[in-house]
Amino acid sequence: RSLGDGNNTVNLRAYDSPQSFWTYQDQFDTAIKLTAGNGANTFNLYVEDTGNVLNGGTGTGGHFLKPASISIVAGNGGNTINIPDLPTEGGSLPGSALTTISVTTGTGNDKILVGGSDITIKSGGGRDVITIVGTDGDYTTDSNGAKLDINTGTGAATINLGTATDTNFLLSGTIVAKQGSVITGSDITLFVNTVADLRAASLTGITRVILDDDNTGYNGGAADGADSTVANNAVLTLTDRQFLAIGASNFSVDGAVFNTHAIVRIVVTQSTSLTALGVDSLPSNIDLQLEIKDGVTLTMTAQQLHERVMSEGVFLGDKDVSDKAA
Question: What's the pTM value of the predicted model, to 2 decimals?
Answer without folding.
Answer: 0.83
